[in-house]
Amino acid sequence: MNKNRKVKNTALKNKTKKKEWLYIGIVLIITFILFSPSLKNNFTNWDDDLYVTKNNVITSISTSELEKFGDNFVGNFHPLTMISFAIDYHFFKLDPFHYHLKNIIYHLLNTLLVFFFIKQISRDNLFISVFTALLFGIHPMHVESVTWVAERKDVLYTFYFLTGLLLYYQYILKKKILFLVAAFVSFLLSTLSKSAAVVFPVVLFLIDYFEDRKFTFKSIAEKIPLFALSIYIGIVALKTQSQSNAIGDFQFFTFFEKIRFASFGFMNYLVKFIFPHNLSSFHPYPENNNIPPIYNLAVLATLILISYMVFAGRKNKWLVFGLGFYFITIALVLQFLTVGNAVIAERYTYLPYIGISFIFSTIIYKIFTEKNKNLQYLTGAFLLIQLSYFAITTNERTKVWEDSISLWTDVIQKYPNESGAYSNRGHFHRTQNNYNLAFQDYNMAIKLDEKNDVAYSNRGKVFFDQGEFDKAIEDYNKSIEINKNKSETFSNRGAAYGMKQQWENALSDLTKALQLDPLNINALSNRGLVYFQLKEYEKTIEDYQKYIQSNPKNANIINSIGLSYSRLGIYDKALNEFNKSIEIDPTKAAYFANRSFAFNFMGNKTAALNDALRAQQLGSNISTEYINSLKQ
Questions:
Q1: H-helix or E-strand containing 166?
Q2: Distance of CA 275 to CAs 141, 272, 385, 397, Å?
Q3: Do 517 and 527 form a contact (C-beta atoms < 8 A)?
Q4: Taking the CB of residue 209, how many other CB atoms lie within 10 A of it?
Q5: Which of 340, 357, 341 is nearest to 285 (CA)?
């Protein structure tokens, strides 16, 4: 009898497991289908260039280069994310398909982890677990985190964050310290992917509350290492952001204005969970600091919601847990600190929406388990409309990220007075040599915001490309008047002065650019050229050697180092550099000609003749007299 009961229980468990995997499998398939259009997308010029396409750091993943992954990237500290990009580059170079595919894979894994996490929270409630995972997987507000290549940090840090929470649950259930250690490791990996993960230990206390775990010395002491790591990563992140001006001036907005912005974000994200409307990759602050009354209402609504959460805690722990998870994970991006130029950002909801999805799924479950048929029919109709809307919107939003034109045109449609969107679209037009369209966008950007230093600087680049160096310098001057801390602008003006052969002015600007950003390799290469023109060959070599550390395969720069050694009469070192440049690119006549001259000065006329003839074959106008002299 007992054996039969065990067999039945085992069969029932197996059937339940199969059902679970069937449902979650369907969720994952739907999610993949909805996000699959992004596999056809290109990179955009919104940080994808800084993180991937123009990031020399990711081109090497050698042990000696590892420390560079901890450098400041776009005002953030996320070395693991950079290593992830380096791995992609190692195998796939700059094929955007694979970068998008990996983002989708991480999103699918996160959807699966959400299922298991909520399954634990909901006491194995299959409906709540699957429905929460579905909402997480297909929500339109998550498109930005998944489809934007540079936002790899979101899907990556969430993966380790959720893994850590599941491991902590195992620690609670099985009382084995190994699970707590594993949770700490996952937390560490999460913080190295994105510093927003520092709230992880606070979420652990929320889990303790939900599981009726007593707040004892042990429950607090076990989290001390996690809080220590949180504090350390938090300090590093703040330092990194402040160095790059990612954190705005604390005096720019008053304390109450920041409270209104934070409350607006808190409530706006909740509204967009139910009705994700007016979606955009960029949501600017109110124009001219004219804060609408809805921001004041948001403060009141936030206070009411938090008060309800406190008083409802005794009877509805699931509600407190969901709201608590949402609040804890979104608190750091609610613009108490003015980070960036956006009042809200859709990517900020990626992890926090798990809490709201759990609440929503629980409410739906309760409705369908009660006897009110009319309410059930009404709810079913609402869900059909809502989920269809989610699916269609998510699928369409992935296409917005197809390229820089579609991305910034979408922002302009939503916010036609957003100067930065015109500037960014103009930048893409310039890279495609569509100078007329670039001028139109830059002019509009400046018309909308006369203090848009980026628009002036970018318009200066167009003038530079067209050989109008005086006009370029004029725009660079205006940009520098507005913002004296942009390394790129000084570098660009220095290049323009160089084209006018105003070497001293060029040297001054390029040196200033490198003071502002020692990693500005364009400034390094241009200053090396200026030093060469000024016959300061030792300094040329010094700058170019620094440049080569970041871009070791640049044959032109290596050849220039060789020329500098030749001018100094150090022909053995010159020869070594010419050998390197020819090894990298054996099709350049100039490299063989330069090596020929070096061989000649060293008395090796046979080798000099061979290189001279090769240079001639490749199209060099090397003189007949020189070749004849080598034959004697």
A1: helix 152-174
A2: 10, 5, 11, 15
A3: no
A4: 15
A5: 341
Tokens 């991937």 belong to 52
Residue identified by tokens 């094929």 is 95
Q: How would DSSP label each residue in 18-73?
A: HHHHHHHHHHHHHHHHHHGGGGG----SSSHIIIIIT-GGGG---GGGGGGGGS-B
CA distance 268 to 620: 65
Give the tens place of pLDDT for each residue, 422-480: 999 999 999 999 999 999 999 999 999 999 999 999 999 999 999 999 999 999 999 99
Residue 261 near residue 252, CB atoms below 8 Å? no
Q: Which letter, b or e, does each residue of 163-181 get, where b requires 16 or more Cβ atoms within 10 Å of its Cβ?
A: bbbbbbbbbbeeeeeebbe
CA 420/CA 492 separation, integer angstroms:
20
Q: What is the DSSP letter of 337?
A: S
- List beta partners, residue 460: none
Mean pLDDT within 326-347: 83
* Residue the block writes with tokens 């609440």: 359
What integer pLDDT is reported at residue 72 of this predicted model? Answer: 53
Structure tokens, 195: 């510093």
Given a contact cutoff of 8 angstroms between Cβ atoms, the answer to whether 204 and 223 are in contact is: yes
Which 8-state DSSP code applies to residue 278? S
Query: Long-range CB contacts (< 8 A, 24+ apart) of 197-202?
Result: 197/157, 197/160, 197/161, 197/233, 198/230, 198/231, 198/233, 198/234, 198/237, 198/332, 199/230, 199/328, 199/329, 199/331, 199/332, 200/161, 200/164, 200/165, 200/226, 200/230, 201/226, 201/227, 201/230, 202/328
pLDDT digits (tens, 9 = 90+) for 527-556: 999 999 999 999 999 999 999 988 888 999
For 70, list phi and psi in degrees, rounded to 5: -90, 5
Q: Domains in the chain, please, with CATH?
A: 2-400 (no CATH), 553-632 (1.25.40.10)
- Map tokens 């180092």 to a residue: 561
Residue 602 token pair: 């060293």
Which residues face 183 on adjacent strands?
none
Tokens encoding 144: 């930005």
Distance (Å, whole) CA 125 – CA 113: 15
Q: For residue 125, how many other CB atoms are within 10 A of its CB? A: 16
Alpha helices, DSSP H, located in 517-554: 521-533, 537-550
SS (H, E, C) 499-517: HCCCHHHHHHHHHHHHHHC
Distance, CA of 284 to CA of 234 (rounded, Å)? 26
Which residues are paired to 247 by β-bridges?
A: 339
Q: Distances in Å between the alpha carbon of 225 and those of 180, 231, 273?
A: 11, 10, 34
- In DSSP notation, 228-258 reads HHHHHHHHHHHHHHHHTT-BPPTTTS-HHHH
Query: Six-digit token pair at 110?
Result: 């996160």
Question: What DSSP letter does each residue of 558-587 carry, written as one string?
Answer: HHHHHHHHHHTT-HHHHHHHHHHHHHH-TT
**How far, in Å, are 26, 107, 143, 144, 180 from residue 138 at the CA level?**
12, 10, 8, 12, 31
Q: Are 168 and 222 in contact (CB under 8 A)?
A: no
CA angle 50, 524, 425 (to 5 degrees): 35
**Cα–Cα dist 494/480, whole Å:** 12
Segment 160-187 mean pLDDT:
96
